Predict the structure.
Amino acid sequence: MHSTLRLGSLAVLLAASAMSAQAQAQTPSLAVRSEKNISLELANQLAAATVAACAANGYSVAATVVDRAGVVRAVQRADNAGSHTVGASERKAWTSASAKAPTLAMMENAQKNPGAANLVNIPGFLLLGGGVPIMAGNEVIGAVGVGGAPGGHLDEQCANAGIEKVKAQLG
């Protein structure tokens, strides 16, 4: 009788274990995430390509590349670029990465839409053209911000030109 009870208990434990394993296999893991991010090497290439794109148009700028969380990965400041351009490029990059949107579009939206006008009050946000998200497929992996060209629309053109130079590496 004891061996029958033991076998019955063992069968119940094995069945419960199998059900638990099956439930875990069907439930996505909430503890671990996998996400793409920009590498240091690519961030440096992008910053250089962006500064070069602006220099080709006669603009001395700073370019900052941030990762998906808005943390600085690379900064380059052209010769003769004003010291303020570094801070402006970093804030534009951070704003773009945080909102996952170009800062020029955000600025225009805030100017036209009273409901979005308060975006300027978010600490650290800089709603001036020149911040552009970096996409790998449909995923934002960072952003580049540019400061120093004579207009935010020109900063954005330089950012887009820099991204275009490294586009093949974005997958």
Summary: The longest strand covers residues 139-147. Residues 2-26 form the longest helix (25 residues). Residues 23 and 29 are 11 Å apart (CA to CA). Confidence is low (pLDDT under 50) at residues 10-14.
